[in-house]
Amino acid sequence: VQLVESGGGLVRPGGSLTLSCAASGNTESFTSMGWYRQAPGKQRELVAHIPNDGGNTNYADSVKGRFTISRDNAKNTILLQMNSLKPEDTAVYYCNALITVDTVLNVYWGQGTQVTVSS
Fold it and tell me: Which of 2, 31, 35, 68 has a Cα-to-Cα distance from 58 of 20 to 30 A?
């Protein structure tokens, strides 16, 4: 499984960006997908998570109300719509997929895309 992120870049505070993650496999078979981020000197943290079983999406408290995760299984893609961006949102954003094979949970990561929020 390969995950390829796109859509990062430089944006001013208050602006918007949409990140996209294209998966090489059939996302309908994935257990869940999500977005994580890692700022310099900090640990990687969960931003948003969307399960494949129709369950609720989950968001980090710091992005609730501003970010929206969605998936398009027909295109094997997930999106992260980011609005009202703040300088503290600056980080490398990683796409994540969890795939269960014979009861074993496999974890996959994309290469990351840089998001910089600055005036």
Answer: 2
Give residue-wise pLDDT tens across range 96-109.
999 888 888 899 99
- Kindly compute the dihedral angle of the four CA atoms of residues 96, 46, 92, 110, in this order, to the nearest 10 degrees: -10
C-beta of residue 17 within 8 angstroms of C-beta of residue 116: no
Where residue 54 falls (left for φ over 0; alpha for ψ -120 to 50; beta otherwise) is left
User: Which residues have a Cβ under 8 Å from the Cβ of 105 and sit 6 or more positions away?
Assistant: 31, 98, 99
Is the pLDDT assigned to residue 55 strictly greater than 90?
no
Q: Rounded CA gap, 47 and 67, in Å? A: 9
Portion of the chain with pLDDT greater than 90, in percent:
76
